[in-house]
Amino acid sequence: MTFERSIKSAIIEETGEIIQSDDYFNNRQKGDEIRTEYNRGNITFLCLGCKQKLSLSKSNKRTFYLKHFPNSEYCELKEESLSSEEQEVYSQILIAKESPRHIFLKNKIGEFLKETKNVSNVRIDDYWVFNKEGKKRRPDVYCKYLDKEIVFEIQLSNLSQKYILGRYDFYKERGIYLMWILDNFELEGNTTTELDIKYLSQHQNYFRFKDTSSSFELNCKFKQTHLNSINQFYDEWNEVNITLDKLNFDEENNEVYFYNFLKNREDKLSIQKRNQAKIDQQKQERKLERERDRITSKVYDFFQCIATEKEKYLSNFSALIKELNSFNEKELDELNDRLAIDKKGRLFNWLKEGKYTDFEFFEFLLSSSRIDKNINKKDENGNSILWSLFNNELIPSKEQYLQLFFKNGFKFLKEDEVLLKNHYSSIDEQQRIVLVCQLANHTPKWLIDTLFEYKSQRVFCIVKSCLENKIIGFKFKGWIALFNYAIHNYPEYWSYIETALKSTELFETVILLDKKGTFQNKLNNQQNVQQENDKNFAQLFIHLYPELCH
After folding, report:
1. Cα 444 from Cα 247, distance rounded (Å)
2. What is the average pLDDT across 125-141?
3. Assigned domain for 330 exists
């Protein structure tokens, strides 16, 4: 196993020569001669770190090495647990401290500090700082500035992270501010020392002593954070020559700085957040605007398709119904805002201007629950949509529209009867259509089509005649003619008619009036006729005349 000397370097007090132990004691014969001179007192070895005298010893294998005397004072090389590699680095640091450049800088710094305002107690390489454990450090330069203690350490050689952190933690514990004077420090450098120093500095301020100045002056290189045009961070290095009074002291991080990098970055971060909020808002606004444009365009195209389909002789709105069902909520809102059927009275206008070919258009318009409209809204003159319908002679099949209206929630009022009576010339037709409209008010939407079937209308006119004890919706003069007609033409519905007939005294009256027996013969024959099972009509009858179904 190779012998490792703990003290790699030393200084000969008599000559000032710095020796490397491994080289100096490499030759055993020469080592014996050196040992002889040492024991005669002609040569003295001093520790580069603490400047105390060292003992020259020889191992059992005749290897010469230097060590501290047992009763010597504290020294990092003596007390600290340093690895062989750390000892080598520390040795190089100590050697650098004895270089002409190092000596020049620390003396120059000290001399200028003595002449600087508010600086006192300047010590150059002879002041020991002790901590609570008795460990000590000797900075290159020590001084007091106002109420602050500052130590200056000059960096000329590579420094280990342990050395850098050790110095920083030691002085921080004592509340002393450490300033590294980086004589050959490169901001863009990637050496371990350069990276370690940059990592340790919170404020990213680095100092070089201006040895060409006539007074104490530092060249400060500092990092400054900026925001580019796209709101991204970028750092830029700046430099400025400063005097001691321009320095600031960060008590929390125990750091000296000129430019407050941390505050600058926090300020820029706040600005970036505000900028980003504006950018996000603008993006959102542009996104919303694009969405509005898309929706507007889609609705416009949809209206164009409606107009095109409406003008066709045979319109088919099935594709448009499917497309309308695919509209999302915002698209529907835009469509209904643009249509504004109730606000602009469009239903009345379309009915006034409608043609015989427009039924499919109205069916599409009224049947869709996605299109906002109030079919019971009055126009500016207080008229319902029936007024617009029955005053347009170009629309022939008005009952088809009536059926459509009721399927979409139209409510027939007493005042609407006048329109129907004015339109239909015969009393029986007036009675029929008024009755159908009255019944439609009480009919579920899904049974409206059944109600408007021709047979259904005739049957309900007969039922109503029975209940009112007067012929409604027919031209017949007497009851026998009506019931002979009913039993002959609507045998499959006779059970409903018979129920209404027998619910009053009219049945006995009809039997008495049937002198020739024609009705009774038909009634007897009816018993052999199989009744049609129309489920929709059965449901409709139950809804309209529940009192007859018990």
Report:
1. 89
2. 91
3. no
